[in-house]
Amino acid sequence: MSKICNACGMPLEKKEDFAGGNEEMDYCLHCADESGSVHSCEEIFEGGVQFFMGATGADRALAERVTRKNMKGLPHWQGKTCTVLEGEEATDAEFAEALAKL
Ligand SMILES: [Zn+2]
Q1: Which residues surround ligand 1, an ion (CB under 5 A)?
Q2: Is the pTM value of this prediction over 0.90?
Q3: How far is residue 23's CA from residue 45's CA, in Å, rounded to a whole number?
Q4: Cα end-to-end span (Å), the chain
Q5: What is the 32 CA–ligand 1 centroid distance (Å)?
Q6: CA angle at 82 for the pair 48 and 98, rounded to the nearest 5°
Q7: Ligand 1 centre and the CA of 87: distance in Å?
Q8: How many alpha carbons lie under 13 Å from residue 29 in its C-beta half-sphere?
Q9: Cα 45 to averaged position of ligand 1 atoms, centre (Å)
Q10: For residue 46, what are the contacts with CB-CB under 8 A and spacing of at least 6?
Q11: Cα 91 to middle of ligand 1, angstroms
């Protein structure tokens, strides 16, 4: 079985990847604390932007669009209002290209 973080999409492969080291969690250690409380949309968005810039060499504008598309496809953000997710999203091609570099 393979889970992903419901807020950022990070693969949850080993115990240490989970929030609080708890494999019952649907969130990674970056997105939630050990009680399962999930960080703000702004914090997780900024973490995603930094991650994509570092991992794929994208500039900030592209990293923001890729992060937006990634987060908007994940369960945690469905039906939530979040200003940083309102902007432009990466195209499918840009998104696939970014993921291929990870
Ligand atoms: Zn996460």
Answers
A1: 5, 7-8, 10, 28, 31
A2: yes
A3: 23
A4: 21
A5: 7
A6: 30
A7: 21
A8: 11
A9: 10
A10: none
A11: 22
Query: Ligand 1 centroid vs 34 CA: distance in angstroms?
Result: 13
CA–CA separation, 67 and 90 (whole Å): 8
Structure tokens at 50: 């930094």
pLDDT tens sequence across 33-71: 999 999 999 999 999 999 999 999 999 999 999 999 999
User: What is the 7 CA–ligand 1 centroid distance (Å)?
Assistant: 5
| Residue 98 CB burial class (10 angstroms; 0-12, 13-18, ≥19) | buried
- The DSSP letter of residue 39 is P
Render pLDDT for 17-32 as a digit per residue (tens, 0 to 9): 999 999 999 999 999 9
Name residue, tokens 């840009």.
94
Query: Which sequence spans correspond to the domains of the chain?
Result: 1-38, 40-102
- DSSP helix, strand, coil percent of the chain (3-state; round to 5): 50, 10, 45
